[in-house]
Design brief:
Length: about 400
């Protein structure tokens, strides 16, 4: 596959990844905790009194609000819970409904059942970013920038992005009908697509003709560790002149996966430092047995490099193990702990911030590359990748 064409499509994915993954509180995460048994009656009288205003407002709405359809009490509860979480002012602490939680779980596992198309919201419109290669969406003829107007006859106007995705996804073998508006077509048209099991791309690797190994990681999901190790074993067996680790547009994932990836390139030390709200620190050490601890290394980063990606890049930069090339990273340095609630909804709560081995803060700041190289829209349109070119030049020349 032509690498630049693939990079162009991946750059579109960065937008969707930022919307979906950061809004969902994903990034550096831990495994979900067991369901909690909290109920209102468990609260002491003082805390119950704090809810008096809420229940006063609830009863007024229940008794006075003009409506022609029955009130959806479940949606009211979810809305109130989301408002509670938003009041904390931390975009990474989030509440997910059962449907949103299911979608989140599918995404971090790396597989889901649906049509295989990346979808984004642009100015209130839901558009196809791209159909995934050899997916039902691609075979049905969907194209980038197609706008989705309806799903199975239901208008998507006014919905949240994750709700639209929930409508489109469904069990494999079932059919979903999309009403599509395409530029240049006089009228919207309907497309029927049979859903399948979709496996997200996680790792891409190759030995280039110039002898440089190339390894790209798209996200730190459950499938990443084994695929990274398999790719590295294959690459290192060919004795490359150097290795490019491409973390551009990678929005993050699980903490333990980041620790394992960094450990592939480090022989000792720590990968990161965690600090909780009380100032207590936890150090995460390098795991022994890395497959590429001595090969010359460049890490490509950009504004979409976030969270777990920044853990890896920051550790390799701190130890002088790799040169970072590209643009300043996103700047997400927090860890979310997941709590499953009684109805399968979930709460993802920021519990710690993390720092590089040298104590550098990433939250809100990001990482500054050693060699700054921008990738412009003009570069993309012309099929150029100056960041990749600079990485190759550095590894071949040593400067």
């Amino acid at each position: 596959m032509d690498r630049m064409r693939k990079w162009i499509t991946v750059s579109f994915f960065v937008t969707l990844a930022a919307v979906m993954i950061f809004a969902a509180g994903f990034g550096v995460g831990r495994y979900s905790s067991p369901a909690l048994g909290y109920v209102a009656n468990d609260l002491p009288a003082e805390q119950q009194a704090r809810f008096r205003v809420f229940w006063e407002a609830w009863r007024i709405l229940e008794n006075e609000f003009y409506h022609t359809e029955p009130l959806d009490y479940q949606e009211m509860i979810y809305g109130a819970t989301k408002g509670l979480v938003r009041s904390l002012g931390d975009s990474h602490t989030t509440f997910l409904t059962p449907t949103e939680s299911r979608i989140f779980s599918e995404d971090v596992q790396g597989t889901f059942e649906g049509i295989g198309a990346e979808i984004d919201e642009r100015d209130g419109h839901f558009v196809i970013v791209r159909p995934l290669p050899n997916s039902p969406a691609e075979r049905a003829g969907l194209r980038p920038n197609d706008e989705v107007l309806q799903v199975d006859g239901v208008s998507v106007e006014g919905l949240e992005l994750i709700h639209v995705i929930a409508l489109i996804r469904g069990p494999r073998g079932t059919v979903v009908r999309l009403l599509i508006l395409r530029e240049g077509e006089p009228e919207p048209f309907e497309v029927s697509i049979r859903r399948e099991t979709i496996e997200m791309a996680t790792v891409e690797s190759e030995i280039r003709p110039d002898g440089i190994a190339y390894l790209r990681l798209y996200e730190f999901n459950d499938a990443a560790s084994e695929r990274i190790e398999a790719a590295l074993r294959n690459l290192m067996s060919q004795k490359p002149k150097g290795l490019i680790l491409d973390l551009r547009g990678n929005p993050g994932g699980f903490l333990h996966v980041a620790q394992r990836l960094a450990s592939q390139f480090l022989s000792d030390g720590i990968v990161l430092i965690e600090r909780d709200r009380d100032g207590h620190e936890t150090q995460h050490p390098v795991k022994k047995g890395g497959l590429a601890v001595s090969v010359p290394l460049v890490v490509l980063v950009d504004r979409g490099t976030a969270s777990a990606s920044e853990i890896v890049a920051g550790a390799l930069q701190d130890y002088g193990r790799a040169v970072l090339i590209g643009e300043r990273t996103f700047g997400k340095g927090s860890v979310q702990k997941a709590f499953m609630l009684s109805d399968s909804s979930s709460l993802r709560v920021t519990v710690t911030h993390w720092y590089t081995p040298k104590g550098r803060q990433i939250e809100g700041q990001g990482l500054t590359p050693d060699i700054e190289v921008k990738l412009t829209d003009e570069d993309l349109e012309a099929g150029r990748d100056p960041q990749l070119d600079r990485a190759v030049s550095y590894l071949l020349s040593g400067k």
